Amino acid sequence: KAGVTQTPRYLIKTRGQQVTLSCSPISGHRSVSWYQQTPGQGLQFLFEYFSETQRNKGNFPGRFSGRQFSNSRSEMNVSTLELGDSALYLCASSSPPGYTDTQYFGPGTRLTVL
Amino acid sequence: QQQVKQSPQSLIVQKGGISIINCAYENTAFDYFPWYQQFPGKGPALLIAIRPDVSEKKEGRFTISFNKSAKQFSLHIMDSQPGDSATYFCAASMWTGGAGSYQLTFGKGTKLSVIP
Description:
Chain A is mainly β. Chain A has strands spanning about 5, 10-15, 20-25, 30-40, 40-50, 55, 65-70, 75-80, 85-95, 105, 110-114. The model of chain A has no long low-confidence stretch (mean pLDDT about 90).
């Protein structure tokens, strides 16, 4: 079975731009969570989607948004990028939905904001 | 407010030694405590996990010790090997009834270096 895939792997943007990151979960997994990883703050939960609905949301500003499609693929969007948004963005999928002991992470998208 | 505190930030251990990483939590609603291992360029991978109804869980060279009254848990890596060099994250999870799902809160990580 293929693992969680994330595209692109690396991205460089400038302040004020917006960015869209993509995540394809493991086949059959319907829950997708997104995390931001930085050296200072560690791993922080962004949001979780299940059946195209956002079920849970972390403490991030509204510039961070996401969505999930009917095939469980998910995208997250960050608008009006700030320097502090530079981070590794990780996607994780799980099955049964929401059971963290079966949560699998992708390799992440490294976003650099200049 | 950091809900899961992890120490140390970095750890250097000789090959064959025991690596010990500690975590403490505040919220008694947490009911699942996993440890993740992350290698450079990779996402975190679940290593071992424990629920609060047991005090210890062992899988190969990896052991979690759990102290519910002290709200602390730790990871012990026996016979540490250079291949164990990675960043380790403890986490705690609780059921968010309103959302109908679990939510993971991570510690800030420990960078382990095992030297030959």
